[in-house]
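Sequence in, structure out. First:
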Amino acid sequence: MAVLEALFLLGVLALSIAISLIVTVPLTGALVRLRANYNPRGLQLDPEGNVEPHTGPVVTSFFGMLKRVKRIEGWSGLYKGMMPTLLASAVLTAFAVIALNSTSASYHGRVNPPSAGPFGVLAYGLFSMLISLPATIITYRSITTPYKLPYFRPIYSLRILLTPTERRKPWILYLTPGLLLSQILHVVYTAFILRALRSFLVPLPSPGDASDVHFSSIKFGIYVGIEIWSTAVLCPLEVLATKLAIQRNHAAPEYNSVEQEVEEDAVMTEEYTEYSGVEEDVIGLRHEKDPYLGLVDCAKRVVDEEGWKALYRAWWLTMLGGVLSAFASAAPSLS
């Protein structure tokens, strides 16, 4: 009976994930493109030192990017990244339900562990980071690639998204410069620091007994304020992680971390522009021969080349997620 109940719960959660992703995937895709878009403030130098004017798209708003994706790539472009997002969310949910007895769905992105004690939170945080890092790389690259990726041909898609080195040595994804550090800092802040503050300011009632918890509107207001101010920390981490995740790893010394290696087995690919008739890219990317070397290097170059405001692209979405998380955490105390 317990097995049947677990399977039923997994089925319900899987359905809720699928419905949620239908709404969130296009929004996430626009957000990733906006933050990955390279929009320098002035003239740049090419690898030979010559002045090279920026010719990429200048898109500064979330809804402007959403409209641009729809215009150039159509509805199918809006749902790029659906399959890796679905798979990662399904794995995290299954782990939370089976190992931690959670009853809510989990998504890769902001880590919000189920209530399972300190060791459960630690286990979920580590497992989430282990799954989320390669999932983030594959998802963000599938969103930003100009090529059409079939939903049910993962090997074909991975040959497009990953370099030969990354396919031969998948663990090298964890060595992508600066990305692991950005993920660790994000998990530590959201899963441990914010969770500890939430437990102190908005304690959850014990199962079956809500009388031992007194809800304080003042403490809850303080926690909401902390979530809002946390945008100053989390949004830059998310922007930097986006830019670092789309950089590709190469082993050959004549290639740097983002320059394309010579493929031994070339893949015939189709671009979205072949169907839309629009001869322009959705976003522009930084020159492949001058990659970011780490988290700090990425932050410095973004500020120098694109301005500090680039670190806070779509900051209001990060803030909105924090506020909604605060109200969701307070729901058991209010009921």
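Second:
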Amino acid sequence: MSALDSMNDGETLTLVGSGYPENTITAPIVRLEDDTTTEDAAQAILSVFPLDNIHPSPIAFLDLTGESYDVPDVAFAVNGIASDAELRRVPMERLGLEEFLEQARSSSVVVRVGSDAPPCAFLFRRGAL
């Protein structure tokens, strides 16, 4: 993915599912195959994309529930993938819709999976190589 190579330290990549509102996306979109899951995409991205180790939460996920105890399975999976890739515990933060959309608008790249996964979206903050 040359789009990832063009990103600088501190920039954000947004990973979204097929239900994410495309009219809110301003960055270039990398569209993955229809059967690619969010977890598969996160695995591929995080195998070559270092996460910020200075920011307290280099990953944020879109929280549509508003319940602090209700974390979607896909968020747990992505957090595990990130922690394995980074060989450290990677903190994640949850963002409500408006705050998530605001931060996603400044993303350098948006990766869109094609599978009909539950609504999910993540922000990954790039760290130094």
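Remark: The CA atoms of residues 86 and 117 lie 25 Å apart.
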